Amino acid sequence: EAGVTQFPSHSVIEKGQTVTLRCDPISGHDNLYWYRRVMGKEIKFLLHFVKESKQDESGMPNNRFLAERTGGTYSTLKVQPAELEDSGVYFCASSQDLIGLRPGDTQYFGPGTRLTVL
Amino acid sequence: AQSVAQPEDQVNVAEGNPLTVKCTYSVSGNPYLFWYVQYPNRGLQFLLKYITGDNLVKGSYGFEAEFNKSQTSFHLKKPSALVSDSALYFCAVRDSPGGSYIPTFGRGTSLIVHP
Questions:
Q1: Whole-angstrom distance, CA of residue B92 vs CA of residue B76
Q2: Of A4, A33, A48, Cβ closest to residue B43
Q3: Tell me, what's the pLDDT at A46?
């Protein structure tokens, strides 16, 4: 079974440019989550999709970030325009069931996209 | 509110020695606790979890963790470290019942095992 994949693995852009990150969850996983880790800090939740619908986007930092999951399969996270503080590693995770319906439902994480904004 | 702390940015240990990576938490109810590991250029991998029951939880790659309610801790341990254990380790917590279904992660602890 293929795991969660993310593309690209690294992206270096200049301030003001646009970047789009992609996440392909494990096949059949309705739940998809985006997280971000700024260097040396905690992994912070950004948002959660159930199929194509946004279940929780309370962690999205501002309106420069736009996440989509058309068709309920892969998801994209667009940052436009990028700022210096957007640098970090963006993780995607997926789960078969909504974590919390059963205690300890496990999320499966992708390798992350390292974004550097210069 | 739920929170988790990993007080050490880095832990150094010699191969063959026991290792401990510390984690403390704060929740309103009962905690669900997790450890994840991230090897270089890889995603976070689930190691183990505590939901209820035995305070000593055994997980992948010979790791175990002990839930201590009085000290609100969930330290990760391994009796004999391997160089291949060198990685970034994250502790996470969820509050229950009725808390956020999204886990809160710590800052991560870099484990370096020296040959």
A1: 12
A2: A4
A3: 96
